[in-house]
Structure formats: C-alpha cells, structure tokens
Amino acid sequence: MKDIIIVGGGLAGLTSSIYLASAGYNVTILEKNSHFGGKMMDVNVGSYHFDFGPNTITMPHVFQQVMEEAGLNSEDYFSFQQLETHTRNSFGDGFSFDLSSSHRYMLEQLKRLDPKGANSYKQFIQQITRLYSYSEQHFLHRTFESWQDYLSPKLASALMKVKPNISMHDFMKQYFENPKIIQALDRYATYIGSNPYVAPATFAMIAYLELVDGVYYVKGGNTNIAKGLTAAAEKLGVNLYPNTPVSKLVIKDKRVTGVTLHNNTTLEAEEVIMNGDLLKQYPELVEESARPHFTNKRADSYEPSISAFVILAGLNKQMDGLHHHHVFFTKNYEKEFKQLSDGYYPSSPTIYVCTSSKTDPPVSPDGDNCFILVNAPALTDNGITLDKEAYKQRVYDRLKAFGQDIQPHVVEEQVYTPEDIEEQFGSYKGSIYGPASNRKVDAFRRPYNKSQDLENLYFVGASTHPGGGSPMVVLSGKNVAHSIIEKDK
Ligand SMILES: Cc1cc2nc3c(=O)[nH]c(=O)nc-3n(C[C@H](O)[C@H](O)[C@H](O)COP(=O)(O)OP(=O)(O)OC[C@H]3O[C@@H](n4cnc5c(N)ncnc54)[C@H](O)[C@@H]3O)c2cc1C
User: Fold this and answer.
1) Which residues form the Amine oxidase domain (predicted)?
2) Beta carbons within 8 Å of 236's beta carbon, 6+ residues apart
C-alpha cells in the first residue's frame, strides 16, 4: 500500500491519518512538538488541568464519526456532556444574559430583556437553521481542489442564499433590539477569528450550532479528543513521530517525492498532506519557483484571523458567580474590533473565562482552573510591542471591576501571547483560525485542499476548507482522506 506522510499532527492531520490507515495506507505523521493535537493542547500545572485551545466544543458527532467510521467505539476514547445553559454574558452595568439551547429559557429571558427578540426568536432560529443546512449540504463535506469546484450551478445558487451581502451585526439587528444581546450574539464572529461588523451573515450559522445543536464538554477535559484521536491513530498502525520538524519538501517533476527533516534525513512518500498552517508552512517548506499558483505575494494577500492573549490561572478557591463559559463584555465592542484591525490590543478588552472545574471538579481539585482569553491582533510589523505584565494586570483589574477578583487567589499561572502561538504551532502571524473571513469573498477564497502545482500535495487544517475551529478542521482531514482514497479506487 502507498506511503503517505502527514506534516503536522494537529486534529486535522490525526483525522486524515485515521481514515487513511483504516483504508490500508502506510501513514506517518511528523510533528514538530512533543505532543499531538496541535492547538488542542493539554497544559497541566501543579494540580490544575487546562485545555489550551478549544474550550467550546460544538458538533460532537463530527469527532464521534471519525472513530465509528474507522470501526472504533468513540465512547472508549471520549464522552461528551451537553451544557444546556452554556454561556453567561456579563456587562459592566450589571446586565446579564445567558445563551442556552433551551428555547424555553431563551424566550423567558428575551421577554424580559428584548421584546422584539422574543417575538422574532422562532424566525431567527429558522433562518440560522437554514444557513447551517446550506453550508452542510454544499460546503462542509467536500474538498475544494481548484476553481472549477466553485462553478457548479447548485453551489452558485447556495452561495446566493447564505447571506454573503450583509454583515453578521446587521443580520442580528434584524431580529433583536437590545444592543447587549446583539453584542453577545455578534461574538460568534470571533469563533472564526473575525469581526462581526464586516464578516458576512453566513457565519450566523455558528449561532445554530450553539443555540440549537448545543455546546458540549468532554469529561476529563476537551483535550481528551486529541488524546483519543492520537490513541486511535496509534491503534490503527499510524507511525507517530513527535519532536520531528520537517524543514523541506523534496520536489521532482511537479511531484513531492518526500520530506527532509531538520537532521537532514529524507523520508519518501507517494502522497503528502500538510497540516501546519498553510500560509506559513507552504512558503517555508516549498521553494517559491515550485508553486507559481501560490506565490509569497498570494500568501501575504490573506488577512490573518485574530490572535489571542491567554492567561491560565490556577486558583486556591472556587469563585462564586463564575460560570463554566463566562464572557465579560466591553462597553464599546465596535471600538475593540477597530483597535484589533488597526493592530492594537483592545484598551478595554472583552474577556472570556472558561472554568471547566465548574462542570468537572476533578480536573482541578484545589480550586478553579481559569482559562482567560482576550482577543489580540495578529502580528504585524507596525512596531507595537506588548508590555505583557501590564496587559495581564489590566485583564485582572477588569475582572475585579466585574466582581471577579481572582488575582489574589492565583497560585499557578502561565501567559501566552500571539508570538507564543506563532512559535509553538507555526501559525501564520499568530492567528488562531487561519485566514479571517471578514470580506464577503474570504469565506469562499480559502486556499484549496490540494496544491495547484504539485500533483500529490494536499492541505488540511484551519487555513483551508471548510474553515477554522475544531470540528471544521476534523472535516477537512476527513474530506482530504476521502479524496485520496477515491482517487486510488
Ligand atoms: C487560544 C485558542 C482558543 C481556541 N478556541 C477554540 C474553541 O473554543 N473552539 C474551537 O473549535 N476551536 C478553537 N480554537 C481553534 C482550534 O484550536 C483550531 O482551529 C484547531 O485546533 C486547528 O487544528 P489544525 O489541525 O488545523 O492545526 P494545528 O492545531 O495548528 O496543528 C498543526 C500542527 O502542525 C505542526 N507543524 C507545523 N509546522 C510543522 C513542521 N514544519 N513540521 C512538523 N510539524 C509542524 C504544529 O506543531 C501543529 O501541531 C482555538 C485556538 C486557540 C489557539
């Protein structure tokens, strides 16, 4: 059977490996870090467990299917628990609003807080369900390998129906009137690293995932998904090499014949899949002359999604009033996105705190495990340098102003900046979701899943189709594996 090399062992690469190994291919994953799972990374400090990366899990069936379709029982690897009322949104003036997949509870709150929203909630749910179902039918379960893939009349008609012409913010305003509720729903744009004031309403389908399909947590930590996929790959005979950075692809006659490792060893392969961030990895590993359809200029033409400033804080107590998913909003959300798009850190940032110990106390027996995330600009060369300590202090001070004075209780702490994210995962400019989807064409202009220049080179992961976020990258891994299997039939 064919030898396949996957460069990078993130969720997408692991998924491809599982499908290909179970179809009989000889698969090798070369991963530069010591762990597999990429941004879905276990961080254990003292007695505190943190899920770095995906804290909000949607579409559990996508992860379960990988296991089931490889003949494995997903429950042996990870089990999902639905969080019905999943996210508390708090505002500086004491206003608070929960997001829930219970329609009854949503209506109860809206009747009090947003009468227009209460009247139109049913219609809103129908519309976001429609958006999701178009995406599911036309975008999520297929690869995009060349421009011809966009030409099918069915796809063109679907594209017109997914509301690419209005922004997500304007879409939300059609159904809701309370600016704070609109702000809480606008935040869904950040799930793809984008700006709600410009990202097309197409992405309101994310609201469908949270408000209809549900938000999930994996018992023992979401990183059990990455550990489960790694264990499954190993069981199916995938050769897993951690601490093995690839420095070059070997190219002959428009084909990749193998890869060169940092120690100059060359490994041969008949097909190669790149899982690292394409915008950074493709230019780094393949000489520009071998990729005329993807020049450095083209790579630079993509706008990176936003990055993150993350504090992992282990506390010596359980904080009252802190929810598993809790967002503390800035007063002026538009200003926050303007600062981000200008390359600045928000002066008064919205703060997301995920405390999984609220649902699963054993992951952090000595107190809360707060994963604190603030939107940060992708790296630019505008000369702005971050004073990490001062910014961290600002975040703690803002939480204190919201009544969550956690800083005196911090006993373990780690801080990650966009520079760290770029360095650790090889992310383009530190972006966390690949290219942004701010312009209406962006969503449909992501790099293809297959190289236009090298016959046997494929791309999976957040910077390609169908997009960023953990379920999407798993779908990209699956779609590319299927494409290789189909080609060989
Ligand atoms: C702080 C943060 C919060 C997030 N929150 C959420 C969330 O709540 N929900 C959600 O669904 N998603 C979230 N995401 C996004 C999600 O983590 C990513 O979309 C997803 O994990 C990306 O997976 P991937 O397989 O595309 O790539 P990655 O996870 O980036 O994996 C790529 C791998 O390739 C390796 N690599 C790169 N170059 C080389 C090389 N030359 N040689 C060998 N190996 C190489 C890297 O080390 C890495 O392990 C978040 C991400 C971050 C950073």
Assistant:
1) 11-485
2) 17, 18, 21, 22, 70
